[in-house]
Design brief:
281 residues; Protocatechuate 4,5-dioxygenase, Chain B; eight-stranded mixed beta sheet; 32% helix
Length: 281
Amino acid sequence: MSAQIIGGYFSSHVPGIGGAIARGDQSQPYWKPFFDGYPPVRQWLAQARPDVAIVFYNDHGLNFFLDAMPTFAVGAAADYPNEDEGWGLPVYKTFQGDPALSWHIIEELVGSGFDVTMCQKMKVDHALSIPFELAYPDVAAWPVKIVPIAINTVQYPLPSPQRCYDLGRAVHRALQSWQDDTRVVVIGSGGLSHQLDGSRAGFINADYDRFCLDHLANEPEALLRHSTEEVAAIAGTQGVEIVNWIAARGALGQGPQAEVTRNYHIPISNTAAATLVLAPA
């Protein structure tokens, strides 16, 4: 017996999305092409019925800041309250954790050479909450528990795409050895290409974004050819959030993946926004 990995859900997490939801702007011309990508995600989740979500994302100063920034941090809490880190977004519903599964994953990661930070108290920001608001609108309580895994995409030196993929592979091994038939969805949150500051503020690289979307399912190794510094040059300094997607892909395992749905739209608040669902082929 082991956990059943039902597939992966990948989504951008631009704070402006939360503002659009709060204002009810989903049908406005600026936002509609983006929000139109989510009904197929919701349909797939309703059919797949996950129990737990393993979420790879990046913290934006809510738990960690430049003076103390772990490369990888894994939540092992019973619950994860949401807080706004300064965007003026509504406070979203608290997430329930799965501490037993969290500790099992942590033990596998440490055993695999990943010196992770273990968080028995942890808040979650827009990067984790917005993909859930998009996938499960208007629910009274989140229908899944979570294991959050935060990856440093802010403070140099950053982990490489290869290292993040290997992190995901170690999570996959943990799920394979989990003695429970828990249904697991893996989530990668962030991206795609964007840069928010400096002389290249507003930079988007649609060619690189489509390269990532085209290869993530069945040739993820193609995304590992670049260093993190090269990704920042190609996709923008905040475009390095693609490592969250890469880690999530690693957690799906090495078997072939079928693309269930894809949506790509530019721009959303100076960001290339996308969603993607993969399921075992």
